């Protein structure tokens, strides 16, 4: 029987799995790297079962807490970084005359929106993805818009129809002009008889 750690209750191999899982959060891959064998389906199933155990969850939670205590990471600080990128303005990178500012002269908020700088014949400055930051901020605030959108409201476009005389029955004609008739019924009409006329003979 494998020896278990007194503090965590996990075996050495299980602790190895936990450490591997924390590198990429891929349970199946971590299970393999920890030395477990089996088919792909068995590994995926066993990895999920091990990850869901109480002892494993307590160990992972303790590790996260240790990271929080030994680093300066916090939700508030990360949210502030997102805020800087979301509301960044590229005009802050330039002087009033259009010249690029020296990086050492950038204010704190603007400097933190810069992802990289390439120096050469021309200076190339890359900024962090603003739309990506906005998307992450919306998710952080639980305000991301639902992808499912209601069907757009029906828009009535007024069209004035001037029919030929006698080609549309009067009730339907009035409804069509008022924008209320989905269909206009045509009625048979009696073609008007052409009146004969004569061209008078001209005198010679």
TrEMBL record:
It comes from the Bacteria. InterPro entries: Terminase_Gp1_N_sf, Terminase_ssu. This is Terminase small subunit. One of its GO terms (biological process) is chromosome organization. It comes from Luteimonas marina. It holds the Pfam family Terminase_2.
